[in-house]
From TrEMBL:
GO terms for cellular component: plasma membrane. It comes from Exiguobacterium chiriqhucha RW-2. GO terms for molecular function: penicillin binding; peptidoglycan L,D-transpeptidase activity. Residues 64-292 form the Penicillin-binding protein dimerisation domain. The keyword Protease does not apply. This is Penicillin-binding protein.
Length: 685
């Protein structure tokens, strides 16, 4: 009997895994191909493609704009900007050495570069020797390499080979005639700085040279005639040192200026006011922005306009400055008799209410040539011992510290401390604080220092009491501006010479302006602080910043005005500051500054004589035949006028002046000059 069979349906094969595997394989092949192509692009053709990308890019050519002018307070130009049409060169990014040499040779036939303006180094001459005859240079290299072993040749880099060639060129081979030297100088200028940056070939091209260049521009790629801006100083050396320098960026500062967007060959202010206000005076350069293909410009450029630098107006009065310069010159000549080491003098005049600096003068006489040199920057850089001019601050803090009382009498007689005998220039007998300032008593100041150091209670000549007293005295002196930066708007200033006394006798010296040295600008700030009632005002040269060409009052466009800035108020009670002010006033009425009465203007003043070491022009101590420092005196003066509402305060320092009376005569003549006192006789002729 036949069996009935159950038919089991066959299991259907699933083709999905096979298809997925095939898909993954195809994706893998595609990715592998892509990676392979990227590798080819990056490794094999990367440099070629990079060059192709670089063929087309955006570049820009920079053009100078006029630098801002500097005026005095009355609108007289102190630093002008003048334009000289000059020969310039801009090399493209792909210009070859032989192409630059060809342009240099053609330019040398057109322009005359004076020998004094040529900057040619030994390396420039050797580079020219190599470039002028490449076949000869290559032959020289082959001969040099032939003299080396195979191992030595293998160890040489391309740079080593270049140096080998340079070293082989002899002095005789790079001794050229004048015409060739001019070509080398032009090529040197062409290769300075970056591509597309302007390189100066010649400043001040003649009309004939400009015409010839214009006619031959097609043969002179990269050459142009453009305005080149330079500084001009209508008042010559007067105040010029404070205006500062404007020149190519110093090598040590290139990195910092490049970070600000400057070019390698740009010019900047490198000292004093030019440096301080570089950002204001510079302006914004103009640019031609264009597309380059293979390093060469394509099409017409787009001009991006620049802006000339802003003008600045100073607080200085240049005519007054000239008068102060002459007063100091006359004083130096008048004081030479009996003062063999007196050859320089300094004076600072400022408004004690606003801090405006009206004059900063320094004059030095060269005994050999009998000519004067302007050393005005010494008013902020050179420190001297200021002598008794400091006594106003000493009396003021003595009252504040209550080691003396207002009107207290002290008997002026010599004091012996150990083996040291200290005295005033004469025994003055019983005097109070005002008399001490008017007559310039040393003993009164010594007593303040001794009491501050608690000397009479402890009898200690050295120790903590001396250190604490010094710290207290220095604290007060700094509040007046002595021993710290004044804040003058210049890139740098000296803070003077600081020493720490290790015994009470040096503390006594410090109280009368010995032992520690200060600059004339610090002394002027101190005097102004007394004059205005205790506010240490920042001295400043900047008065206003204005838009270029808007000096005329009717059209003046003021960008900013320097506002008076009180750096601190002296931490001494007003009544004690007033005692010091009265002492200075009494010095004019009946003391050492009586000559100022002849001006007819109420004034306050204080003389100051300090023992010092004679210094040479280099600032180093002069020495006698035994090698010992030569001792001399400094003669100084400070004051202000009018007394109640001061317009000017002055500080005068005359190192090496041993003659009496000249310091006060200088102060007298400064007042005469400022207040235009035509009917008052000058004291120094």
């Amino acid at each position: 009997m036949a069996r009935n069979r159950v038919k089991v349906p066959k299991k259907r094969r699933n083709h999905l895994p096979l298809r997925l595997n095939l898909l993954f394989f195809i994706v893998f092949i595609l990715f592998a191909t892509l990676i392979f192509r990227l590798g080819v692009v990056q490794i094999v053709n990367g440099e070629l493609i990079a060059r192709e990308v670089q063929k087309t890019e955006s570049s820009k050519i920079k053009y100078e704009v006029p630098r801002g002018k500097i005026y005095d307070r009355n609108g007289q130009v102190l630093a002008d900007t003048i334009s000289n049409y000059s020969v310039m060169y801009r090399r493209s990014q792909v210009t070859k050495t032989e192409e630059r040499l060809e342009v240099a040779i053609k330019l040398a036939e057109i322009v005359d570069v004076p020998e004094k303006d040529r900057k040619v180094t030994e390396r420039d001459r050797k580079d020219y020797w190599i470039a002028i005859d490449p076949e000869r240079s290559q032959e020289r290299v082959q001969n040099l390499l032939a003299d080396l072993s195979e191992e030595e040749r293998a160890a040489l880099s391309n740079q080593d080979v270049d140096q080998l060639l340079l070293d082989s060129i002899t002095d005789a081979e790079i001794t050229f005639d004048d015409a060739t030297e001019e070509i080398i100088a032009i090529k040197h200028n062409m290769e300075s700085g970056y591509a597309l940056d302007p390189q100066v070939i010649k400043i001040g091209a003649s009309p004939k040279e400009m015409a010839l260049i214009e006619e031959n521009l097609e043969l002179l790629p990269g050459v142009s005639v453009e305005p080149y801006y330079q500084r001009d100083y209508p008042f010559g050396e007067t105040f010029q040192s404070f205006l500062g320098s404007y020149r190519q960026i110093p090598a040590e500062q290139r990195a910092s200026y490049q970070a600000k967007g400057y070019g390698l060959n740009d010019r900047v202010g490198t000292s004093y006011l030019e440096q301080q206000y570089e950002d204001v005076l510079r302006g914004t350069p103009a640019y031609d922005v264009f597309t380059t293909y293979k390093g060469e410009p394509v099409g017409e450029p787009t001009r991006v306009s620049g802006n000339p630098g802003k003008d600045i107006i100073l607080s200085t009065d240049i005519e007054f400055q000239k008068e102060i310069d002459e007063i100091l010159k006359k004083a130096i000549r008048a004081g030479r008799s009996g003062s063999p080491h007196f050859d320089r003098a300094f004076a600072v005049v400022m408004n004690p209410q606003t801090g405006e600096l009206l004059a900063l003068s320094g004059q030095e006489l060269d005994y050999e040539t009998n000519k004067f040199k302007d050393v005005s920057t010494g008013t902020v850089l050179r420190a001297s011992q200021i002598g008794s001019t400091i006594k106003g601050a000493t009396v003021a803090f003595g009252l504040e510290e209550e080691v003396i009382q207002p009107g207290e009498y002290i008997y002026d007689t010599p004091i012996r401390i150990g083996s040291s005998l200290k005295s005033s220039y004469r025994n003055m007998g019983n005097i109070n604080d005002l008399d001490a300032l008017a007559l310039s008593s040393n003993i009164y100041m010594f007593q303040i220092a001794l009491r501050l150091a608690d000397y009479y209670s402890t009898g200690q000549i050295v120790g903590e009491n001396v250190t604490e007293a010094f710290n207290t005295m220095e604290h007060y002196y700094k509040q007046f501006g002595l021993g710290i930066e004044t804040g003058i708007d210049l890139p740098y200033e000296s803070i003077g010479f600081r020493s720490v006394p290790d015994r009470v006798t040096l503390l006594m010296d410090m109280s009368i302006g010995q032992f520690i040295s200060y600059t004339p600008i610090q002394l002027a700030q101190y005097t102004s602080t007394l004059a205005n009632g205790g506010y240490r005002i920042q001295p400043h040269l900047l008065k206003e910043i204005i838009e270029p060409g808007s000096l005329d009052e009717a059209n003046k466009q003021v960008v900013s005005t320097f506002q008076p800035n009180a750096l601190n108020k002296v931490d001494i009670r007003d009544e004690f500051l007033q005692r010091a002010r009265q002492g200075f006033r009494q010095g004019v009425e009946s003391g050492t500054s009586r000559i100022l009465q002849q001006t007819g203007i109420t004034a306050a003043g204080k003389t100051g004589t300090a023992q010092a070491i004679a210094e040479g022009p280099d600032g180093q101590a002069k020495r006698n035949a035994n090698g010992e420092p030569i001792k001399t005196l400094n003669s100084n003066h400070v004051g202000w006028a009018p007394y109640d509402d001061p317009e000017i305060a002055w500080a005068i320092i005359m190192p090496g002046l041993e003659a009496e009376g000249i310091n006060t005569r200088v102060a007298h003549d400064i007042m005469k000059a400022y207040f235009d006192l035509e009917d008052v006789q000058a004291q120094i002729q």
